[in-house]
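Before the break, one more example. Copy the sequence into your notebook; we will annotate it together after we see the structure.
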Amino acid sequence: MLELCRRDQWRASDLDWSRTPRALSRDDELAIVQLFTDMAAIERLAGAMFTEQRRRATDPRLQQIFASFVVDEARHAAVAERLARFYDVHHYRAYATSPALVSFTPHFVHAIRFLSDDVANAYITGGELILDVALLRSINDYVQDPMSQQAMDLINRDESRHIAVDYHMSEYYASPAYTARLETAPALPVRERAQAAWAFVNVLYFSAPFFRDVFFGPMDRIDPGGRRMREAFKRMQLLGFKPGLKDRPFSRFNRVLHETFNHPVAGPVLGPLAARMVGVDARYMKRLYTEEEAASVEHRSFDDLAEDALQAKYRN
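Here is what the structure looks like once it is written out:
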């Protein structure tokens, strides 16, 4: 993986910016420029997450891999900004990052520093799945332009490496070695535990408008029916069944909320509260997997699950 990270580096200048964008309607141009404007901020947020993972890593190879991911995300952000300018042909209005994304970012970056390693990785993996399986592919299909296609091909190649490592880290957090490490680790000071709890509460509070305005709302336009978003959330739900992960406190917390939402009696009453606590649109709180798929997770490797997630983004 480290060799792939080194070999597959590229620069924004490698793209052919001399192209002319295809003719767009006013509504499409407004939507596309805003999508790329927000994408730039999302990529920077991903970079902050990988910076934190690099800080926590003890293996020198992992440190170098995460460092390369930080470089990847900075490049993706720069390309997204340039794509926003590229498609802003008529300058219909001034564009800025969505306010909900601006509000969410500092709380999430703060929380990642205080949350346990497995919880931080769960958020990072979920974010990468949404980004790679759903958002980037749908933006590209909506734009339908060679300039976007060339950029997204390279960005998707980078993101595939990110997801592979996310699943690798999930495997470690499901391992007996990580359990033993937790059991022997000294208890956190009360002050740090309070900071972690407060950070987590803020993430839960600000996540709902963030997901609504930055992911679910735009995806309703560029991925009608939410097929790709369901694919991303399905992989998150299935990962929670993996032995070693399903018994972690954060997995149990999410499972209780999902079971509450889907319960025939409690769901209609408490389901909206459960969805609000997760910050997720009710459509993606539903069970998106079959019983057979959930049962098969126990016997599948993390590499296999990662490959399945990567293949999902190429399915029509």
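The two ends are 28 Å apart (CA to CA). The chain has a mean pLDDT of 91. Try to locate both features in your own notes.
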